[in-house]
Specification:
Number of domains: 1
CATH class: Alpha Beta
CATH superfamily: Vaccinia Virus protein VP39
Number of strands: 7
Strand order of the largest sheet: 3-2-1-4-5-7-6
Order of helices and strands: HHEHEHEHEHEHEE
Strand content: 15-25%
CATH architecture: 3-Layer(aba) Sandwich
């Protein structure tokens, strides 16, 4: 009931699954994260006022609804590949000046000022590996980014790389595993001797 109630507070029901036309690119069908998991994924101290929040594969925008309901005033960017879904989400959330929805592949549309990235696992392993490479290319010198990876099926891609610090959590029986992944700043890594 909470999912339906909060969905309608922000413009309409967001449940269900939508078949993707982008399976050939490593993208799975669109589904929404349940609101019950979000306070566990984003504890109160996990987002600073200066953070730019990026929802990779934002779909219908349920995570964005939740961030708005928590009164985050941060810039929030949703990236959705499915043009039909992106347009509907953009239209539904257009009154929120701190929200921007981008239609396209996140591999090519990561905002340069992003600091906190969220993704549910709607992606296949090669796509997650490509995302990791893009994050490294864009943010290695700056560092300071955090990835909240819910239902983290391919977290080993990050765990097996010393440039990343990975903390995994079990959020409870009703929920998927969460990995909180932080990129180390290039200069802060231990030097080989």
């Amino acid at each position: 009931m909470r999912n339906v109630s909060l969905d309608f507070r922000y413009g309409g029901f967001l449940g269900g699954t939508r078949k993707t036309p982008y399976a050939h690119l490593g993208v799975e069908d669109t589904a929404s994260t349940g609101y019950g998991a979000l306070p566990l994924i984003f504890p109160k101290d996990s987002v600073r006022e200066s953070d730019v929040l990026v929802d990779i594969g934002c779909g219908k925008g349920r995570v964005i609804n939740w961030l708005l309901s928590c009164r985050f005033v941060n810039q929030i960017v949703g990236i959705e590949m499915d043009e039909t879904i992106a347009r509907k989400t953009q239209r539904r959330l257009r009154r929120y000046k701190n929200v921007k929805i981008i239609c396209g592949d996140a591999l090519f549309h990561l905002p340069e000022n992003g600091t906190v990235f969220y993704l549910y696992n709607p992606f296949k392993e090669p796509w997650v590996a490509a995302l990791k490479r893009q994050l490294e290319l864009r943010f290695a010198k700056r560092g300071g980014i955090t990835v909240f990876y819910y239902n983290c099926m391919y977290v080993d891609i990050f765990k097996n790389d010393p440039k990343w610090i990975v903390e995994e959590s079990v959020l409870g029986q009703r929920f998927h595993r969460l990995a909180v992944i932080r990129m180390q700043i290039e200069n802060s890594r231990p030097q080989a001797t």
